[in-house]
């Protein structure tokens, strides 16, 4: 039966077939459905969206939509976290191999060097200008941190305008916080259709890819050193990471999804998820691109909204409210402790 259902219903809980959608929706509205109603849609049992009623095995009861949503979002979160961990490990490996590479004589010219260490801002800028001049098709960038400073945007503006003039397409990933920077909005308006931007709660460290042939990543914490990567396997790996993050990101032209919980913003939901993972305030601030002071202000509002008197109690309330994982869409409304339930329909 399981195999038969998988052949006729090749989908997951994130994209139910039309028949499965009807039966599951009916079960949610009515509280349960007869087992015979689910016979044409075995996918609902296989995906654990319906399960037998312990009081009457001839009936099936639904798994709550919020529980299904949490299960799906955890899968997305695990995928993003795994990608970020792999990129972090790769950067450490690049630095180690780059250190070994300095001990041997490398062939002259960029074509003969799979990994080049660029020491100093002048060398980094020169290499970036060279890659910009050679680029003909596409530039992919990841820009971590919060609101982009005017100086940062101005520094690379001449390269961006040169690329636009040659018809090169650009795609940029930022954190959600960057949406509040007027400088970024002005930059995107100036670039027009040449640039498409999306945002995530948090992104990997800075990454710039030209024509999927050369990549630049930081080589130290203050970004006074960089790695220029031309090894096809390494560049292909970084392109894959970018594309997966891009698929999960939200277009800058679209509004951030509502949390579905009164009094809690999308940013506070992101902070709640990081708190649930055990991160300190400074780490949360760095990952979301905000100041520690701002992060603590949001944490204080979370505590007040959730009725938590301590950090320990806040962790419990975060889990109870289903805020211990990131979200891309609006979950079902959650009633917080001490609040009135909305009118049932």
TrEMBL record:
GO biological process per UniProt: regulation of DNA-templated transcription
Any GO MF annotation of the entry: DNA binding
PROSITE patterns associated with the record: HTH_LUXR_2 (PS50043)
Cross-referenced InterPro entries: Sig_transdc_resp-reg_C-effctor (IPR016032), TrmB-like (IPR051797), Tscrpt_reg_LuxR_C (IPR000792), WH-like_DNA-bd_sf (IPR036388)
Domain HTH luxR-type: 257-322
Superkingdom of origin: Bacteria
Name assigned to this protein: LuxR family transcriptional regulator
């Amino acid at each position: 039966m399981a195999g038969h259902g998988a052949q006729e219903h090749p989908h997951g809980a994130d994209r139910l077939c039309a028949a499965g959608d009807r039966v599951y929706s009916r079960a949610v509205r009515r509280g349960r459905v007869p087992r015979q109603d689910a016979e044409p849609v075995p996918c609902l049992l296989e995906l654990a969206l319906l399960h037998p009623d312990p009081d009457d095995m001839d009936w099936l009861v639904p798994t709550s939509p919020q529980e299904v949503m949490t299960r799906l979002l955890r899968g997305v979160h695990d995928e993003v976290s795994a990608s970020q961990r792999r990129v972090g490990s790769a950067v450490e490996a690049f630095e180690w191999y780059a250190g070994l590479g300095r001990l041997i004589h490398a062939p002259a010219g960029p074509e003969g060097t799979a990994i080049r260490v660029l020491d100093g801002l002048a060398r980094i800028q020169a290499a970036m200008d060279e890659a910009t001049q050679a680029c003909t098709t596409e530039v992919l960038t990841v820009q971590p941190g919060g609101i982009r400073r005017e100086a940062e945007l101005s520094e690379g503006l001449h390269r961006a305008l040169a690329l636009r003039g040659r018809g090169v397409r650009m795609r940029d990933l930022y954190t959600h916080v960057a949406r509040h920077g007027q400088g970024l909005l002005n930059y995107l308006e100036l670039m027009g259709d040449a640039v498409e931007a999306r945002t995530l709660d948090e992104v990997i460290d800075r990454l710039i890819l030209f024509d999927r042939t050369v990549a630049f990543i930081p080589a130290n914490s203050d970004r006074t050193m960089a790695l220029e990567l031309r090894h096809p396997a390494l560049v292909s790996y970084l392109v894959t990471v970018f594309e997966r993050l891009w698929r999960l990101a939200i277009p800058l032209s679209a509004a951030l999804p509502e949390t579905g919980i009164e009094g809690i913003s999308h940013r506070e939901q992101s902070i709640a998820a990081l708190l649930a993972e055990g991160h300190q305030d400074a780490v949360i601030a760095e990952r979301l691109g905000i100041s520690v002071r701002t992060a603590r202000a949001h944490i204080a509002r979370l505590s007040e909204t959730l009725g938590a008197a301590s950090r320990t109690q806040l962790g419990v309330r975060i889990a109870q409210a289903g805020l211990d994982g990131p979200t891309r869409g609006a979950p079902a409304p959650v009633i917080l402790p001490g609040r009135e339930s909305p009118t049932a329909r």
